[in-house]
Amino acid sequence: MANVKINLIINKPKYSAHIEESNCRIFTTGEVITEQKDFMRGHGTYLEDGFIKSSVVGVVKQINKLISVVPLKSKYVGEIGDVVVGRVTEISKKRWKIDTNSRLDSVLLISSINLPGGELRRRNAEDEQSMRKLLQEEDLLSAEVQNVYTDGSLSLHTRSLKYGKLSQGILISVSPSLIKRRKNHFHNLPCGVSVIIGNNGYIWVAPIVNVEEQGGGGFAQCLDPISKGDRETIVRVKNCIQALSACYVMIYDTSIMYAYEESMKYDVKELLNQDTMYEVGFNAKQRILQLE
What pTM does this model have? Predict the structure, then answer.
């Protein structure tokens, strides 16, 4: 008879951290955030009995005297300059429609991309006919938000060599509210993988590729074989990001590396275990709090 491992609740470690800072913990619906005296209420809050209370489950965001609550689970609301990772859903006249985890599909105009070879000229009918050679349905790409339309849909552009078509790697989806806004969302981690942390909650993990040597105006693909060691590292980073998401830890390059270091005492397959996942995420969270 095969040995069956049974995890008793009494033996499970408790991963509840007592955090005093209001901007680090999760507020539930109806919970008091603060008194109204010196603050203004923003999105996700309401006023009752002189107190500002949360109307959604989420994390408090404070800008000067304005207090708002960002929901833990919501669609992406784009801002100009955001880095996003998306998937092509449709090709129409002079544009691609891109799924960016928002309410409406985003738009990438043919005039908003770099042509192969870096040519600078007006787009013509021949360019429109060859759109499918650059991006097809289901292709993944990285881009930047160029404009936000009145209906909330986004206009994207890929006019930099760091943006463009994505080839070999893993796509991970997390809540957009867990993505920490930084100046740089493209990272070559010390563990040997490249990470694009999209503000829209889509994260791309792939082997490190030199974009300048690759060429192709951001649309060339590198299909060289990936070694087993690199594949295991990519999967480990992916599991670490999922562990951070499960523990509601803000995701950025430092938190990913902390989780990666905490995961090294486990095999890659063991990281799929829920208890192991929570332990890795909790330990990474404690290390981040020590920095603050």
Answer: 0.80
